[in-house]
Amino acid sequence: MCLGIPGEVIEILADQPDLAKVNVSGVRRLINIGLLADDLPVPGEWVLIHVGFALSKIDEDEAASAMAFLEGIGQAYADEIAALRESLID
């Protein structure tokens, strides 16, 4: 199962502006933000991520609600975080 997971944008890569470094539950990784070209996120904003792509910008309250829900569903969330840790960039 793949889930949409909130992540906080930390950095937009200067040499690859379609990529952003995000923090997802303590895991930092690169995601593609090209789908948000009309309203690119900036560091400090939150995005909803699915299979490595930012699908939409969300606010911090929505991100917190989504994380609470995901943590409550148990193993599927744990599996997603484990997959993210395997792609750790820092």
Question: How would you sum up this structure, described in words?
Answer:
- This protein has 90 residues and is α+β, with helices and mostly antiparallel strands.
- The protein has helices at residues 60-72, 75-86; strands at residues 5-12, 19-24, 27-32, 46-50, 53-58.
- Helices cover 28% and strands 34% of the residues.
- The chain starts with a strand and ends with a helix.
- The model has no long low-confidence stretch (mean pLDDT 87).
What is the fold's blueprint, element by element?
Blueprint: E1 5-12, E2 19-24, E3 27-32, E4 46-50, E5 53-58, H1 60-72, H2 75-86
Antiparallel strand pairs: 1-2, 1-4, 2-3, 4-5
Number of helices: 2
Characterize the main sheet: 5 strands, antiparallel
With strands numbered from the N-terminus, the spatial order across the biggest sheet is 3-2-1-4-5
User: Uncertain regions: pLDDT < 50 for 5+ in a row?
Assistant: none
Mind telling me the CATH class?
Answer: Mainly Beta
What is the architecture at the second tier of CATH? Roll
Structural class: alpha+beta
Gap from first CA to last CA? 25 Å
Radius of gyration equals 12 Å
Mean pLDDT: 87
Give the overall shape: globular
Helix content: 25-40%
CATH topology: SH3 type barrels
Q: How many domains is the backbone divided into?
A: 1
How many DSSP-defined strands?
5
